[in-house]
Amino acid sequence: MCLVHSWVLDSIPNWLEYGRVMTPSITDSAVKAAIAAVASESATAEEKIQMLIEIAQGFQKKPKAAQDLRNAVGLYYRAYEMCGEEYPLLKARAKVGMAGTLQAIPDADYQLLMQAKVGYEEALPILQQLATPQEVAETQMNFGLVLQSLVPFNLARITDSIQAYHEALRVFTWEDYPQEYAILYNNIAIAYLSMPLASEREYLRQGLAVQSFEVALKHINLIDHPREYAMLQNNLGNALQYLVSSHPVENNLRAIAAYDEALKVRNPKDTPLEYANTISNKANALFNLPDDPEKPEAGNPQNLLQARIYYQSALEIFTEYQQIAQAEVVVQALQDVEAEMKG
């Protein structure tokens, strides 16, 4: 009876976008006013460039609409043009700012992502010479993400994305940068899961993904880093659930334990969408798990009943928050549960 439903990985977060919330927009006139203020300042060229970059960062890091991101690109480009050849570090920072903003534009197409990729590639050698290790690592982190986003278009290699993440991990250690550390290992694991390998090597990429989540969870704990902990546990559960193995029941039990850890953080009041993701993933595992692992022939009517409850709760949340794609997946899963219960 092992039916595989679509499961929900937490999104692949990067440092620039992590936890971003969209609210009403800043107008184009505000951008013009900012540029005019820079132009009228009795400041040096270097100070004006820095001002433009700082204004652009404000739009980029707290955008209130997609237009704010486009405004940020324009401000970064103005700063880039002002740099000439005199200010290489500021020029590289303007390129990185443009790249990060382009990849943050909602539903960015491959052309915008390719522009971002080129921006990172041109800026990184300069940053490696002139910037702090932290700034270089942050850029490598987001470079890895843009490469990962280009893989489905056959415009980048997933191995290069993984390499960029590992470069960032040289600086973003768990002791000093636990949030970035967790995000990087999460992204590495998801990259492994997306690697195209021959079917007989499927177990390898899945095993590497599980190992990556487990490495991160040795250092990211529930008390100090609850959000990252829940993200890693949810995605570990997904990787375990579909791990190619001769022990599917054991893997499903481990997956459910991981989801339960995530649910120590996630709840319908504070994190409704994350909660819905995790309970729908847990329902997938329950669908394929016998009520008594020692007697699989007895079936799983109790687990199917619990799976239906989880799916129904997740469907309500996804519908309320207009997450149409997730809602459609859960509707199909509910139909499968009903058919299994009747059969």
Characteristics:
single chain; 343 residues; mainly alpha; 0% strand; elongated
Describe this entry's structure for a reader.
The protein has 343 residues and is mainly α. The chain folds into three domains: 1-12 and 26-171, Tetratricopeptide repeat domain (Serine Threonine Protein Phosphatase 5, Tetratricopeptide repeat); 172-250; 266-343. The protein has 14 helices and no strands. Helix 1 (28-40) packs antiparallel against helix 2 and helix 10 (226-241) runs antiparallel to helix 11 (248-262). It is elongated. InterPro entries: TPR-like_helical_dom_sf. This is TPR repeat-containing protein.
Structural class: mainly alpha
Q: Which range does the strand content fall in?
A: under 5%
SS summary, helix count: 14
Q: What best-fitting shape do the alpha-carbon axes yield?
A: elongated
The first-level CATH class name of the largest domain? Mainly Alpha
Name of the CATH superfamily of the largest domain:
Tetratricopeptide repeat domain
Helical percentage: 55-70%
Q: What is the fold named in CATH at topology level of the largest domain?
A: Serine Threonine Protein Phosphatase 5, Tetratricopeptide repeat
Distance between the termini: 11 Å
Element layout with pairings:
Elements: H1 28-40, H2 45-61, H3 66-83, H4 88-104, H5 110-130, H6 133-150, H7 158-169, H8 178-193, H9 202-217, H10 226-241, H11 248-262, H12 272-287, H13 301-320, H14 324-342
